[in-house]
């Protein structure tokens, strides 16, 4: 088979292992589902050891299915979701369940930080906003509510770094994960002791992981990990990068005029800033990009996962459609048939939380609304939600001025949906070749660390490509954009109505509740 590399991508629902040759061709891919628990309202947790077993199973499966000789694997690297929290004792074992970055238990604490001015005070120190699933906020919550966990903790870890620790014993991190955690002075490249001092959280400082390059060998596969995965003992393990960075790299984002948009579980818009981090309009999160410069990220849970819910809950489970293909083929064909047409129907993709508490909904329909127009509204509403995030990302005098969007995620699999993104956002959309972009991006780190490429930039040029391009159709875009102000006004009105009619939460509920 020849030389190859493995990339691991630990996401919100699945842990995936993919084997690539040095030209970036995917030779095999295996997926294992992560078990997520919700022990209290607003809490989202995961058993770290179960996640490791899922990763080990995926690695073993990809080696078995590909028939690859483990000796041909030059290196392996891991990517994972940013922020969240994994706390380990001196032996490297979890002292509590891992916390996923969609967790909302810190809402009450963040309200305090907003009220006493701490949130505004620390934002310039870490060059980003504070949000509920951020590691910084979660550490503050643990310190207040689980002091015994603080006492037992020896190392703070992030998702990808916990898995790499199981592979090779190394628990360092890279600048992308540290940056998106809210613990780093992103511009200086060191932990922000001043932020921890302001928040009274200095006790965590000695527990923060050492920092290193994303494309650097951090260790080698141990005998125990080799036995579980089928990897050769001693295989280099490269540090890796957070999933947002990995997706941008796999999308060939190397210059400020290229914007990375992920339209999957989350809406994620990332812009590259070469001279300094973006600070005039503070982004949701920000980190040093492995190729140089800083990646500024704006996002929300308003993307293609909302379509998945519509399909599974309203269509597939109800037996509403009988087709020879998949339900997604039917929906895609329905939207394609009415592209560029107007519909009064509007979909608000806030099933997993909306701005200022705005509820999800499909409104504006009448008895004459067709299935095609209803599905058009679903596609359009999700693009509108992306537009809101992208408009925030492009706000301020130091905002990027992208000329093209590189799009990945479930929505990019649909040609007509990709075209709609181009029409509404007013920029050409290019869809990269491949499917497992988080795994591919971190596999580029593996290939560079192993010496197969002289630099990450060379790895990107050698392992990534563009599959198709969608130009802007201004006439179709005008139909959608004429509706956008009404969409925003109704979104805000619904958020206000929900807030005005929501019963007051008890103190215990306010600490954990989220939209």
Automatic annotation (TrEMBL):
The transmembrane segments are none
What residues does the Carbohydrate kinase FGGY N-terminal domain cover? 5-249
Q: Which InterPro entries match?
A: ATPase_NBD, Carb_kinase_FGGY, FGGY_C, FGGY_Carb_Kinase, FGGY_N
Matches recorded under Pfam families: FGGY_C, FGGY_N
Report keywords, A-Z: Kinase, Transferase
Query: Carries keyword Transferase?
Result: yes
Q: What is this protein called?
A: L-xylulose/3-keto-L-gulonate kinase
Originating species: Maliponia aquimaris
From the broadest rank down, the organism's phylogenetic lineage runs:
Bacteria, Pseudomonadati, Pseudomonadota, Alphaproteobacteria, Rhodobacterales
UniProt lists the gene as: lyx
